[in-house]
Amino acid sequence: MSVFAAERTVAINAVLRASEVCQKVFKQLVSTETITKKDKTPVTIADFSAQAVVNTILYKSFPNDPIVGEEDSGDLRGDTGKEIRERILSLTNSVLDEPLDEEKLLDAIDRGSYPGGSQGRMWTLDPIDGTKGFLRGEQFAVCLALIVGGNVQLGVMGCPNLPVDFNAPEGERGCLFIAEKGQGAFQRNFSSTEETKIHVSDVSSVSEASFCESVEAAHSSHDDSAQIASLLGMTKPSLRMDSQCKYCSVSRGDADIYLRLPTRADYEENIWDHASGSILIQETGGEISDINGKPLDWSLGRTLKANKGIVATNSKIHSKVIEACNKHFNK
Ligand SMILES: Nc1ncnc2c1ncn2[C@@H]1O[C@H](COP(=O)(O)OS(=O)(=O)O)[C@@H](OP(=O)(O)O)[C@H]1O
Ligand SMILES: [Mg+2]
Ligand SMILES: [Mg+2]
Ligand SMILES: [Mg+2]
């Protein structure tokens, strides 16, 4: 029986509303509505608005739950932030039942500042994962997960541009993925409430397998993955896409392995970039670890500081992929 039925319903609603914001923005986005953050990555009015929407909806049902969210309101305050703030406010209010004022909007965004840790309940939110994919009109995802005592219990992901059927790439787009610990995982189309149970592929020979990996070589080394593919005797082309949609693709069997290989020794993966994807992989029968085969540790704060890179597979071929990573990186 579902332990988090209420959380599941609220999270689905929040992710769908935030996805709606992103879809609205994409049609009208102008260049002044994208900011480059200190780490040189982009953030748009849609990222801020989606975070405000999700945090507001979560607060209404679970006022005591802290949130580890990617964005903060620093760039939206004061005179310099006035124009962008007003756009975000009207966007946010276009999907909320009760309108916010400017102060409440900024507060809602900043409710995502929780430092994380091993104690109690917390949500983690990536309002748009794959912002670069979003800007290109390609794959992005609204990603929300519930973590309790350092364990991911629930994950909901909205993928507005992902084809509902991998074999019909020109067909309907827009899917929602829902996974709860011990309850399996489901895909739902944006146009319906019917849920279909999904599972990973049953490929058991690694030479038959295919990778799903980042578009940006700066986020996961393509050279290293090509060499690992060669060690494994893999010949199929990689499926390349932005965002946690990669986890969705592996979880429904479109590809067999999600590899995220470190490009910089000092990079720590953010928990919001992987929490919902990790439970989706586990609940569809897959396996997830870092490149050394170590379980992901969600209890150390806003990042996965004890882990290096990510390997998610259909489970049958996991140990082979870890072995190849080991061989490649420790050569
Ligand atoms: N150096 C480096 N290494 C690994 N990961 C990084 C790095 N820099 C940024 N990021 C994070 O990558 C998130 C987007 O991941 P993607 O898999 O979508 O990358 S890609 O767009 O396909 O290249 C992106 O998430 P969003 O900001 O939510 O898009 C970042 O959190
Ligand atoms: Mg970002
Ligand atoms: Mg992200
Ligand atoms: Mg993001």
UniProtKB/TrEMBL annotation:
Cofactor(s) the protein needs: Mg(2+)
Source organism, top-level taxon: Eukaryota
Entries under SUPFAM superfamilies matching the protein: Carbohydrate phosphatase
Molecular function as annotated in GO: 3'(2'),5'-bisphosphate nucleotidase activity; metal ion binding
Any one GO biological process: phosphatidylinositol phosphate biosynthetic process
Pfam families: Inositol_P
Protein's name in the database: 3'(2'),5'-bisphosphate nucleotidase
Species: Rhizophagus irregularis (strain DAOM 197198w)
Keywords, comma-separated and alphabetical: Hydrolase, Magnesium, Metal-binding
Keyword Amino-acid biosynthesis recorded: no
Key word Magnesium present: yes
Protein family per UniProt: Belongs to the inositol monophosphatase superfamily.
EC number of the protein: 3.1.3.7
Residues binding Mg(2+): 70, 126, 128-129, 273
Enzyme's top EC category: hydrolase
Reactions catalysed according to its record: 3'-phosphoadenylyl sulfate + H2O = adenosine 5'-phosphosulfate + phosphate; adenosine 3',5'-bisphosphate + H2O = AMP + phosphate; adenosine 2',5'-bisphosphate + H2O = AMP + phosphate
